[in-house]
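Reopening this ticket.

The earlier resolution said the output was attached, but the attachment link was broken on my side. Pasting everything inline this time so it's all in one place.
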Amino acid sequence: MGFRYPFLIIKKAFRNLYFLMFFNGFILASMFYFKMEASYENGLFSSIKTSIDAQIDTNDTPDSVLVKSMNVCYQLMNPRLSTFNTAATDLGPEASLFHSTAVDLMTTKGACGAYSQVLARIIGTYHYPVRIGQMKAYGYFGAHNVVEAFTGKHWVVLDPTFNQSFVRPDSRLASFADVQNDWAYYSKQVPRNYDFQYRYEEVRYTNWSKVPVLFPAIKGVLNLTMGTEKADGLCIRTIFMNTYAVYYYVLILLYIPIFLLTFRQIIKTKIFPSQDIPFTFRNLIKYMRPRLIGTNSYITR
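Inline output:
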């Protein structure tokens, strides 16, 4: 029997007007919730940007704006780390299921991943292109996350977990490649509590093997259309940083066919004399017309 019986149940449910009306209401309520949470999260990061703006003066450069953004991120998150970042802490579905950036901001639950997600959102409010790098350490990628931002001329690397940026000999902020190519020089700039396993050996921005077949196929298409170098630097995670906004737009796409199906079922149930009548524009006009002119008789030709 396989999937036939569940499929028949679903098919029957989507022909039931009462179920469709309930489903419409559920989707609309969910859309309202996700839109409300997305607005709240946008407001949080807008407030953080306002706080950073108050520290910026005419002498600031893009590099110094990024460093000030990282400092604020660290000051906001680091005091909460010892409170929330324990295995015993259960923050419910908002943290485990949806896991928005607001949860990362409020709890720092997720360590370097949380720091990086929040800093990426903050930098995004300044409209700098940003990506999260999954550093290779202890033999695997993702052992530590860092943030990279493009200032208009070059990429710079920031490590919000340690409130760490690297300064080149010419006083510019260093890129990941700069640190990777001269770790002996840049390692002298790290704080005392730094984990020296994080030596900037390798980095990736998207785990293209996470979903077998699908992700490698997408990567192959991107290699052809964007070029391998740009595709390697693409960070999918930053595209979906506003989790609630993503859910909201996904539900809009889902709601359109559900609404059209519900509208169709209302017409067939309330307007057509029989649900066996094909739903066509001609039949719609034919059976709507008597109602519009105030008669119960149907006009046939």
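Reporter confirms the inline version is readable. The longest strand covers residues 140-150. The mean pLDDT is 88.
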